[in-house]
Amino acid sequence: MSRQFETAGAPHFPPQTTVSRVMLQVLLALIPAIAAHVWFFGTGILFQILLATGFAVGFEALMLRSRNKPVRPFLGDLSAVLTAVLFALCIPPLAPWWISLTGMLFAIVVAKHLYGGLGHNLFNPAMAGYVVVLISFPQAMTAWLPPASIAPHALGVADTLAVILGGQLPSGLSWDAITGATALDSIKTSVASGQMISEARESEIFGDFGGLGWEWIANWYAVGGVWLLWRRIISWHVPFTMIGTVLLLGLIAWLSDPGSNPSPLQHVFSGALIIGAFFIATDPVSGCTSTRGRLIFGAGVGIITLVIRRWGGYPDGVAFAVLLMNMAAPLIDRYTRPRVFGR
């Protein structure tokens, strides 16, 4: 017995890729790393994501109305949500609520809509908002938590929410008691004080390659990034050249002076290098569009990141490197775009 199925008429085109579908898949790729973040550092990251998303959607709706644009279609493309999530993943879990407010105000209003909205922004909005709060509020942006396995004082859900919304620490605790230096902070401090990196790595905040806990989060970012490559949401050019440049130059520096330069794997599995390589530097709007341009863009982000980590005033340099290469992207595309056939 044969069965008949209703079919649409020709031509049979494959489904179109929409902005909302792309953004949704990127958000799904971030879920494993978010879960790992909660496992190692508590629920603070979830509150930061909710706060940043709420502020981002609010500012997005406000700017759309002020520009006489339809609100519902543009809110449904999930671009503001993705900006908020990427921003939240870069700030400390206990950052006060006004950090997200300030970051999203600059990311959505200034870096995105004042440049013309989605598709017209010169800079990556999430990184623009992050750099603004990093420079403006350095003390609040350095209050990182140690991994739960070595934390002397663990905060519950209610305590975490009270700290974020009201700045109220549990009775008898101070900020020095619940926060500590990250692996990159420790390395930068040790080098500045003349200490050997091998001595600094004796601290319990270090894991096998990078920071304890952070190296597992980086692994899950990489898994999500590989999934995006498989789904053809991003291309391999920027992640490959960015990570490869850091590995190559980091290896040369490490072999020449291991006492003052961390191993290349320490660079890769610490800080924001992996999330930057797969989820931030691959932004198709603020990055390069030509194939050769993407290779140059990724290598440039890797080089600037290493320069800032070694000689700059901040322990990590991915956000600054991305923004600097965003400025160079139009010029890079101009000289690397393929020659028009027949000319």
Task: List the uncertain runs.
Answer: none
Largest sheet: none
**Into which percent range does the helicity of residues fall?**
55-70%
Give the SSE string.
HHHHHHHHHHHHHHHH
Q: What gyration radius follows from the Cα positions, in whole Å? A: 21 Å
Roughly what is the average pLDDT, rounded to an integer? 89
Structural class of the helix and strand makeup? mainly alpha
Approximately how much beta-strand content do the residues carry? under 5%
Q: Could you tell me how far the N terminus lies from the C terminus, measured between alpha carbons in angstroms? A: 61 Å
- Structure annotation, total helices: 16
Query: How many strand units?
Result: 0
Could you state the oligomeric state of the chains shown?
A: single chain
Q: What coarse outline follows from CA principal-axis ratios?
A: globular
Number of domains: 2
